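Q: Hi! New to this. If I give you a protein sequence and the SMILES for zinc ion, can you show me the bound structure?
A: Yes, paste them in.
Q: Okay, here:
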Amino acid sequence: MRVLSLVFSFFILFNAIANAQTVIPKKELAIVIDDLGNNMKGTNELLALDVPLTVAIMPFLSTSTQDASHAFENGHEVIVHMPMEPIKGKKSWLGPGAITTDLSDKEIRKRVEDAIKSVPYAVGMNHHMGSKATADERVMRIVLEVCKENGLYYLDSKTTGKTVIPKLAEELGVPLLENKLFFDDVYTLQHILQQAKKLSEEIDRDDQSIAIGHVGVTGTKVVSMLKEFIPLYQQKAELVPLSGLINEYKYIDKSMP
Ligand SMILES: [Zn+2]
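A: Thanks. Here is the predicted structure of the protein with zinc ion bound:
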């Protein structure tokens, strides 16, 4: 009897230890790369990286579908990189199917729906440029409604301090994420490496971190920085796709195209 109770006590003790371990918050890091879909510099090297990244793909471009499938097959998460009107800059920089504030409600809805269809495997959305459109409540309400109807989360890369996205996402119940750091807001390798170090310090402070880089002008520099820094990040945090930071998304079947 005594042996049995001893065994039982051990069982309780081990259970307590196991439970204690599950409550310890594990640090998580999501790395997002914007601007895929137009055969941009660094795309293939990036998609070949053997860690789960989240790639934001612009709709309706020459390699949108191809990049999305390639990313999915290599274990990365796909989101739609929706082009949206900036305060400054040319409309031609936005690419096809962009959301501008002069469009009707109906046209905005159609463009967002079409964009989602043009990027297979997408489970979320963020915006390309967008400092004007993301401050416009009428426009963003429609964008976020369509995200909700399609089960997509939204990543607000905060290209304006006047973003209405947090308020609307909460009201509509769209899961929202916000990035804290851009790797390549300045194009030099020196700056990109500096930002990479900054992210490492941020991981030490926070339980969840999100950082964004780009393919294109800075593509190959971002890839070589990631190759250097990912082993360091992995010592501190688990590298997860963006959806890994949203509780209700952890159990969703993402294999549907
Ligand atoms: Zn972009």
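A: The chain has a mean pLDDT of 90. Let me know if you'd like me to explain how to read the tokens.
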